[in-house]
Amino acid sequence: MEDCLAKKMEITVSEAEKRTGRNAMNMQETYTAYLIETRAVEPQTEGQCAPVDSLWRRYSEFELLRNYLSVTYPHIVVPPLPEKRADFVWHKLSADNMDPDFVERRRIGLENFLLRVASHPGLCQDKIFYSFLTQEGGWKEMVNETGFQLKADSRLKALNATFRVKNPDKRFTELKHYSDELQSVISHLLRVRARVADRLYGVYKVHGNYGRVFSEWSAIEKEMGDGLQSAGHHMDVYAASIDDILEEEEHYADQLKEYLFYAEALRAVCRKHELMQYDLEMAAQDLTSKKQQCEELATGTVRTFSLKGMTSKLFGQETPEQREAKIKVLEEQIQEGEEQLKSKNLEGRDFVKSAWADIERFKEQKNHDLKEALINYAVMQISMCKKGIQVWTNAKECFSKM
Amino acid sequence: AAGAPKPLPSSGPKSLREMPHPLATSSSEEMGPALTPSPDLLLPRSIADKDLSLPNGTPVDTSSPASSSSLLNRLQLDDDLDGETRDLFVTVDDPKKHVCTMETYITYRVTTKTTRAEFDLPEYSVRRRYQDFDWLRNKLEESQPTHLIPPLPEKFVVKGVVDRFSEEFVETRRKALDKFLKRITDHPVLSFNEHFNVFLTAKDLNAYKKQGMALLSKMGESVKYVTGGYKLRSRPLEFAAIGEYLDTFSLKLGTIDRIAQRIIKEQLEYLVELREYGPVYSTWGGLEAELSEPLEGVSACIGNCCTALEELSEDMTEDFLPVLREYILYSESMKNVLKKRDQVQAEYEAKLEAVALKKEDRPKVPTDVEKCQDRVECFNADLKADMERWQNNKRQDFRQLLMGMADKNIQYYEKCLTAWESIIPLLQDKPETK
To answer: Which GO MF term does the entry hold, naming one (chain A) (predicted)?
Structure first.
């Protein structure tokens, strides 16, 4: 098994830069460009480090890459991009795309995306992906030349449109249901978490007021003064500590967000299968009806209503030559249809096989990653508690000296 | 948000005739404290005989053996009052609800243990309600106007906002009433006050109150701060300083009160969000297989933190805020005493000036001016001594209060820490292979 690209190449998104340029409508726009750096991880001769290649890409190019991958590998749960716009923000965070904190978190998210793709056995071999990392000029044209947009099924955009599938694959139906629920629960979690962060921020910051009033009070006290003053200082420390605590928590939120978007990718695979199944059933149905038509023409019996049948009754029967011609056409179509159905069936089975393999891989990755995320979250909470104990213990000591 | 207040067990609605009077306790001792001064504490003649009276003519209660005198204050053992030299112990406990046809109210048990000769018995147990404490405080203010009388918890509560009969409210009040009596007990002059003695010992306090009221109506109105009249020439620096100190002090306390209230409010709002947050993890756990236990663990953990936070907010509301408010009330009553002192001094200065203007050739200063001078000096001395005592007690009280606040916060974080640390092994656990 060939190694993933991630093992052969170091990939980082190391910088973000504000740029101004002209867009497609020749209007001035501001955007952020990200620097992608790559370096071969090959055993080098002593003392020599592989050279670093780098190029700049903007978010829309990442989007283009992902769209290409989604269409080209429909059976794969394609890693998601970090959010396009800041969502689930609590009051202190900015919802502005140009905000440096948002840009920073996006930089990390984009790097994560590239690493995910590079370590995916199915995706890392892709040439377009490789060019994205290594070829600055002409990449966009290269992608468009693949004609992937034509392959893209526009029906996928109508997320909630139902297609009546007669024999749905139960596993995919369940999985689609799971992905819907997962999206719903993670959204809810992120929304409430943002509110929790907001409130916690308020609690800590109000304590800062103690600092000032203790200081003012200490000015009129003799013996109590020192104790009050130094305790007040600790209250200031306490109030300030929340900023770092909540910044760290944003990383946890980002980890959850990744899986919120992963749930969408998972749903997309289920959807593609659904459409495939639908198309298959439609093709089979079409084939069946054509065969029936053929039979009717051949035997002269009309079992089903057809406009042709009606018109021929009204305007007279066809000539045998005409009928023969029709039968021939139908037979050709039937043959084509049977071949198509055969290949569609094969396609379908292949899809299910590879999709299911990737879904299993995804499940394991998800369980591993989310467990890690929960552990990190618990560690963060533990750290916050310890800091709290420290500060209040210090304050208590100051009070004891009053 | 915090748990609903718990109602006290009630004595149930009964007709007045059926119920024994709640203030008639089981002690069968005779009523009436001894009012004769103990031989140990006889005052030097000169001070005891002084006709001390207030500006409006009401005589100062001098029947208690250790009344106003700076000399005596310094001789008292108050500064060394530790367990060994204490001879009077008072406790307030055992709140009970009484439901009568006319009203519902709470009484508290007041227990006294003492070796003082002023008390007939070594132990007393009586039941008192808030208005009895209020009465006592008024009597103390009247009879000991040169001293700082400790504050009572607030009399009126906003109906509908606070449940007067909830366990939490009653407990908070009980603690404040206990503090009130203990502060009086610790005071070398106030603890010997006649009314205090009766309060601690009388079976039927109402009868004593009525007797006192009749006396008072004969003497005139109770002491009020009379505005106008005399203008103060110059306030002694130390009292000006005390006044300024009290102004700033009560201002700062007010600010701290507002901050503490704000913190509690923010904490409760945080709690509301946390209560929604925890269960979402549980819902998620229901969707998952391998992650089910870890997610449930996190949910339970957050639940534990909610409980800890609830406890912290309750403690702050019940223990921290009331003490702050008490000290604000204390400062107010102290400022009133300072004003009275100013008035006494102003009266003296006015009389002195009047004498000087008369330009009469007198052999010595007239006695009424002398009396005024004594009044001023006694007031100043009492106030100074009380201020020193107050400052010391205040320091100890705040030290305890603030350390308590720090402690509660430490305990909150420790509870949360334990919760989070305990789920780490759960989160790291490898699932059993299927």
So the answer is: phosphatidylinositol-3-phosphate binding
- Identify which of A142-156, B229-243, B279-293 has the greatest average pLDDT: B279-293
Q: Judge if B240 and B203 occupy the same domain.
A: no
Residue B277 to residue A192, Cβ atoms within 8 A: yes
Q: Write the pLDDT tens digit of every residue in B58-93.
A: 444 444 444 444 444 444 444 444 555 789 999 999
In terms of phi and psi (left: phi > 0; alpha: psi -120 to 50; beta: otherwise), the region of A392 is alpha
Assess whether B353 and B410 both reside in one domain: yes
- Inter-chain residue contact A213 with B256, CB threshold 8 Å: yes
Enumerate residues 257 to 286 of chain B having a beta carbon within 8 A of any beta carbon in chain A: 259, 262-263, 266-267, 269-270, 272-274, 276-277, 280-281, 283-284
Does the structure show a pLDDT above 70 at B188? yes
User: What is the b/e burial string over A7-19, where b = at least 16 CB atoms within 10 angstroms of the residue's CB?
Assistant: eebebbbeebeee
Strand residues in B195-353 grouped as ranges (E): none
Q: Quickly tell me which residue has 């449940």 as its tokens.
A: B163
Does residue B323 have a pLDDT over 60?
Answer: yes
Residue the block writes with tokens 């449930």: B296
% of chain A exceeding 90 in pLDDT: 54
How close is the nearest chain B Cα to the Cα of A161, in Å? 24
* Angular region, A40: left φ>0, alpha ψ -120 to 50, beta rest: beta
Percent of chain B with pLDDT over 70: 72
CATH of the domain at A283: 1.20.1270.60
- Could you tell me which of B392, B326, B393 has the C-alpha nearest to residue B137? B326
**Distance, C-alpha B110 to centroid of its chain:** 15
The whole-angstrom distance between B324's CA and the closest CA on chain A is: 14
Nearest-by-Cβ selection for A185 from B280, B420, B421: B280
Q: Which residues 346-405 of B have a C-beta within 8 angstroms of A?
A: 395, 398-399, 402-403
What is the ipTM for the molecules in this complex?
0.89
Residues B251 and B370 reside in one and the same domain = yes
pLDDT class of B359 with cuts at 50, 70, 90: low
